[in-house]
Predict the structure of Alpha/beta hydrolase.
Amino acid sequence: MDLTFTTETSSDGVVDRSFAIGEIPGVFWSPEHAAPGAPLLLMGHGGGLHKRSPGLVALARQAVVRDGFHAAAIDAPGHGDRPRSQQDQLWVDAMLLARAQNEPLSPIIAPFNTSLAERAVPEWRITIDALQSLPEIGAEAPIGYSGMTIASAIGIPLAAAEPRIRAAIFGGVFVYEAVLEAARRVTIPIEFLLPWDDPELDRESGLVLFDVFASEEKTLHAFPGSHFHMPTDRIDTRFFLRQLGVPELAGVAPECA
Amino acid sequence: MDLTFTTETSSDGVVDRSFAIGEIPGVFWSPEHAAPGAPLLLMGHGGGLHKRSPGLVALARQAVVRDGFHAAAIDAPGHGDRPRSQQDQLWVDAMLLARAQNEPLSPIIAPFNTSLAERAVPEWRITIDALQSLPEIGAEAPIGYSGMTIASAIGIPLAAAEPRIRAAIFGGVFVYEAVLEAARRVTIPIEFLLPWDDPELDRESGLVLFDVFASEEKTLHAFPGSHFHMPTDRIDTRFFLRQLGVPELAGVAPECA
């Protein structure tokens, strides 16, 4: 499916273009002077957020400015600029009610996230196809994926299914059987972020999920607090630069790599 | 106690000086052109190793070259250039025998490491006194501590006792009551490295130790494999640069900080 750019702005060395691929709205960030073969970082947004959520945009711009990467985000089904289905609305209402009443969220989140992932994984694959057709990307650019909470519920099955994704950061995700099943098929290098004292995500299930990833290279990063505030700046391990980075990239000082 | 330098060499931008403080032999690494107020990184060596073990030297030189830090290491009691006491030899023999016979190491390591820590903590404090008396360091330079295995068995009580240490990386350590008790008194920012599949260190006790650190800012980094090969290069989070770094330090490119 074709990718159509709808807007373009440029600031602080970052070219920011909105795009649409059929009904999927997205954003594509690029260095003003991208190196040939620069890696592409796919960025999933958290539950209830969207492709231009401030935290996501900050990480995307950092990847562009600091690492010379391209970055892309799309709205998940029912998020951002996309209409929410009646069924999704029922799940959201049930989740907010359970949260307000301090009841377990898992019985709602497991089927909701499973359904989201079933819809979103094919959309990400179409998005990869479309981005690879851009001259800036092409078929050879290394591709990584980063996303917490629902973006991990989507990203873990995506990484299990999609060999073009070479490295990923996940975390803060509700664990249910479909996620565990997908994680057992993930073999790429991963980092996994675990909120240590989350009121909603139990620690033990996160440790189990980390354990079952089939990746030979995997690192667990656990930190105090909840999944609402992931301290990505404090646990930046320059993972994607190591996994995807190309030394001759313009703008990347070798001593930073 | 006075610090006496015994040798000095210089290569690749690093000045390497051996020193002695009474019976404590050490190494002090510095940038050829150190910035005033450059931080000091104290580096403990692992069990059976010494102040010039290759992994330690590589990390020390990286701290000097990349971050503009000073770094220092000393031999733990009975290690490196220091004579091993009869009691320490008994513990070492018992440990090697238990390892060869695949028996639990904890009953030997707990008293051995406790004794080492009781001797080594005061030595590190004397070393800090002596290093602070050097004009390159002074009383104000920020100080960090990094060390795995026995260097954590020593470093955790050291960090609990010594307010001059402002940040630390620990890991791969046998957990017994004295270590837990000290960890509960550690309040500085820490990173804690946990080998996920160690044949000798059980995962659960490592998770318990991470949990009890009183530090508001703490991060657990878990990775496949054993404590014999800590992938420090793969989980480099530029922790000390964030915790101790001074932006105006010579040689530190701001975009790396």
Remarks:
- Chain B has seven helices and nine strands.
- The CA atoms of residues 70 and 103 of chain B lie 41 Å apart.
- Residues 249-257 of chain B have pLDDT under 50 and may be disordered.
- Chain B has one domain: 3-256.
